[in-house]
Amino acid sequence: MLTFALYSSGLLTLNLLQESIGSNFSDLGGKLLIGFVLAVAFAIAFTIIKLRLRDKNPPAAFISITNSPVKDTTPRAGGD
User: Fold this and answer.
1) What is the rounded CA–CA span in Å between residue 38 and residue 36?
2) Where are the domains of the chain?
3) Tell me, what DSSP letter sits at residue 41?
4) What distance in Å separates the CA atoms of residue 40 and residue 36, rounded to the nearest whole number?
5) Does the global pTM surpass 0.85?
6) pLDDT (tens digit, 9 = 90+) per residue, 8-67?
7) Cα(29)–Cα(14) distance, rounded to whole angstroms?
8) Which ranges of the chain would DSSP assign to H, the alpha helix?
9) Rounded to whole angstroms, how far apart are CA atoms 36 and 26?
10) How does DSSP classify residue 62?
11) How far apart are CA 76 and CA 5, in angstroms?
């Protein structure tokens, strides 16, 4: 059992110490990270700009099709 543990730890050490692991992805991880950071920055900037424009130009009030004035529809307490 000890031999297997030493053998597997030795193989793991050799694999980690090799200069070329066998994949040729060069700097794709860095490019992916930069792309993610740029996408997040763009989304935050877009949201801030959109919120500022919404604050400067609030939406118009709701316009109803009916032309009746607003009436108070609360029931009144009246005695018969």
Assistant:
1) 5
2) 28-56
3) H
4) 6
5) no
6) 777 777 666 665 555 566 788 888 888 999 999 999 999 999 999 888 887 777 777 776
7) 23
8) 2-17, 28-56
9) 18
10) P
11) 87
